[in-house]
Amino acid sequence: MVGVQLPDLPGGVGRWTPVVVISVLAIPGAIAAARMLIRHRVRSGVTPSHALRTAVTEVGMIAGTVPWLWMILTPLPEPRHLHLIPLVDLWNQFQHPVAVFFQVVGNLLVFSAFGFLAPVRWRVGPQWVLAVVATASVVVEALQWFLNLGRVTSVDDVIVNAAGAGLASLASRRWWATRQHTGVIQLGH
């Protein structure tokens, strides 16, 4: 797909078609990776149900996050911009209905797979997810700026990324709320 010039549609849809196609084509590889992890863990003495839960959530977090990171770290032929005042960039986006849909929904989804699956994989709550995703989002926004990728580096992206992951963690509550939370982050389980 490298070198393929696709027409740019509203919201850059044509620009991101190769990412979507490759991500869809990678699904069988992700399933195979999860199966190998499950088998390896069962052979190592892990119960099949625990091996299934950990492998599926780990592969899901990666498969559901990497394509978004690929998109937002892809250079664009634009000048870079920096927006450090909270909610101003978001307010300006709301003046353009089509752009705001792609920007807000896209930013809500960037870390949503991680937000949904992290509490299922580890004994962590939404606050932990918010903290990790806010930190990761700051790193991504800083990379966009320092690598001069022709992107908008915005504090609002950090806020919306974290909100999306936090909401996703709440959406998965039925799969993690029944496990006992001790208040201590237990990442090894």
Explained architecture:
The chain has one domain. Helices cover 67% and strands 3% of the residues. It is built from nine helices and two strands. α2 (27-43) runs antiparallel to α3 and α7 packs antiparallel against α8. The longest helix has 25 residues, at 48-72. Mean pLDDT is 87; it is low at 1-7 and 180-187.
Features:
about 190 residues, mainly alpha, two-stranded parallel ribbon, 9 helices, globular, disordered N terminus
Largest sheet, strands/sense/barrel = 2 strands, parallel
Number of structural domains? 1
The average pLDDT value, as a whole number, equals 87
The largest sheet has its strands arranged as 1-2
Helix % is: 55-70%
Secondary structure tally, helices: 9
How far is the first residue's CA from the last residue's CA? 40 Å
The 3D shape can be described as globular
Describe the structure concisely for a colleague.
This protein is mainly alpha-helical and 189 residues long.
Map the helices and strands.
Elements lengths: L12 H13 L1 H17 L4 H25 L8 E3 L4 H6 L3 H13 L2 H10 L4 H21 L5 E3 H17 L1 H4 L13
Parallel strand pairs: 1-2
Helix pairs in contact: 1-3, 2-3, 3-6, 5-8, 6-7, 6-8, 7-8
